[in-house]
C-alpha cells in the first residue's frame, strides 16, 4: 500500500494527541475521586477534539481524494458532488 498523507494530517495528529492527554487526565480524575461535573466537562472536551479530528479528516479526504477520482466535470454534473461535500459538514 502506498503512503497516504494530506496536508491536514499533522494537525489531526496534534488534536488526537491533545485528546489523548485529556483522556489520561480524565482517568486520573476518576481514580482520585474528582467531582462528576469536572469529569464530565473534561470528557466533553475529549469528545469535541476527537469529533473535530474526524471531521477534518473526512473533509480533507473529500476535498482531495474524491476530487482526484471524479476529475473535471461539467457544472450540471458537479452539483451532486458539491452537495455531498457540503452535507458532510453536518457529520
UniProtKB/TrEMBL annotation:
One of its GO terms (biological process) is negative regulation of DNA-templated transcription. Belongs to the FrmR/RcnR family. Signal peptide: none annotated. InterPro entries: Metal_Tscrpt_repr, Metal_Tscrpt_repr_sf. GO terms for molecular function: DNA binding; metal ion binding. This is Metal resistance protein. Coiled coil: none annotated.
Amino acid at each position: 500500500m502506498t503512503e497516504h498523507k494530506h496536508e491536514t494530517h499533522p494537525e489531526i495528529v496534534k488534536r488526537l494527541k491533545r485528546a489523548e492527554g485529556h483522556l489520561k487526565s480524565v482517568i486520573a480524575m476518576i481514580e482520585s475521586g474528582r467531582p462528576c461535573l469536572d469529569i464530565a466537562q473534561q470528557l466533553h472536551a475529549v469528545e469535541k477534539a476527537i469529533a473535530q479530528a474526524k471531521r477534518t479528516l473526512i473533509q480533507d479526504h473529500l476535498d482531495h481524494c474524491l476530487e482526484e477520482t471524479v476529475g473535471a466535470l461539467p457544472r450540471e454534473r458537479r452539483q451532486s458532488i458539491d452537495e455531498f461535500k457540503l452535507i458532510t459538514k453536518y457529520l
